[in-house]
Automatic annotation (TrEMBL):
Family, per entry: Belongs to the Mrp/NBP35 ATP-binding proteins family.
The entry's keywords: ATP-binding, Hydrolase, Iron, Iron-sulfur, Metal-binding, Nucleotide-binding
A GO biological-process term: iron-sulfur cluster assembly
Compositionally biased spans, kind Low complexity: 1-15
Positions that bind ATP: G52, K53, G54, G55, V56, G57, K58, S59
Function, as annotated: Binds and transfers iron-sulfur (Fe-S) clusters to target apoproteins. Can hydrolyze ATP.
InterPro entries registered for this protein in UniProt: Mrp-like_CS (IPR000808), Mrp/NBP35_ATP-bd (IPR019591), P-loop_NTPase (IPR027417), YlxH/NBP35 (IPR033756)
Record organism: Desulfovibrio intestinalis
Region: Disordered, residue numbers: 1-25
Entry protein name: Iron-sulfur cluster carrier protein
MF term (GO), any: ATP hydrolysis activity
Gene3D superfamilies per the UniProt record, alphabetical: P-loop containing nucleotide triphosphate hydrolases (3.40.50.300)
Amino acid sequence: MASCSSCSSSSSCPSATGKGGDGKCNDPMAQQDKIIADRLGHIRHKIFVMSGKGGVGKSSVTVNTAAALARRGFKVGILDVDMHGPSVPNLLGLTSTVEMDPNGELMLPAAYNENLAVISMDSLLQDRDQAILWRGPKKTAAIRQFISDVKWGDLDFLLIDSPPGTGDEHMTVMQSIPDALCVVVTTPQEISLADVRKAINFLQYTNSNVLGVVENMSGLVCPHCHQEIDLFKKGGGEELAKRYALKFLGAIPLDPTTVVAADRGVPVVYLDAESPAKTAFLDLADAIASACDNSLEALASTHAGS
C-alpha cells in the first residue's frame, strides 16, 4: 500500500493514520491516484485530442498523428476514451483483444508496430457490435483503469482520443492527467466552429493547457487535376486560433486516399504513395512535437524563475 507521507491529501484524509495507526493508506481512490501518477511519470507528453463537435474527424486525426509520430521514431500510445463509439482499433486494423502481462496483473496495449500501441474499449469486447450502456461513474472508473492498470511503459507521446462534447470522459481525463496538452480539432464551417468555441470555453474554465488548433477537412485536393477545391470552406480553424490567441498547428485536407487507408486499417502516413493527407499529417506531427518541446521548456523556465 502507498505511504501517507507521499500523499498531498494526507492532512485531510480520514484514512491517513491507517487502521491500527500503521500509516498506510486505506483509501482505494488515493492508492489508484498514486499508481496513475507513477504510470504517467513514464510518459513524456500527454496529448488530449478533443472537439465540441461530432464528425470532425478526431479519431482520424488522433490515429494518423500518432502513426506519423511513430514513423518519426517516437514511442507512442493511443488511449481511446470514446466508450460508446470507439473507432481507433478499426482505423488501425487491430482485431486482437487485450492480453495480460505474464504476472496477470496489468493489461498490455494492443501493438500496431514496435512504436505504436493502443488501448480501447473496443479491444475488450468479444462482440464488437455490442453497445456499451454505461452512466458517468462507470465510464470514469474505466478511464482511470485504462491508465492505472495498463502497462504503457516508457512513451514519448500518449494521444488520448475523446468522444464529442464536454462530458464525463473529458472531465475524467483532465482530472486524472492534469498536465495533458489539449489539441482542439475543428472543420472550417461555422456549424463546427460554434461547438468548438464551447469546447475552448470548457478548457479555459478547467484551466487546461491548450497546445493548439487543427483544421480537418480543410479543402479538397482533386486526385485527377491536383487542384484544391474549398469544398467545406477553408481557414475557419486558423481564424479561431487567432481569435483565442492559440497556436494553429496545421490543416488536413480532404483526401480520398485517407478513406481508402482507413477502410484497409492502415494509417495514411504508412502508405507508400505520396498524398496531400500524408504530407499534412507528417507536418502536423512535427508541429505537435515541436510545440510540446516548447511547452516543456516554458514550464521549466517558469519553475526555475519561481
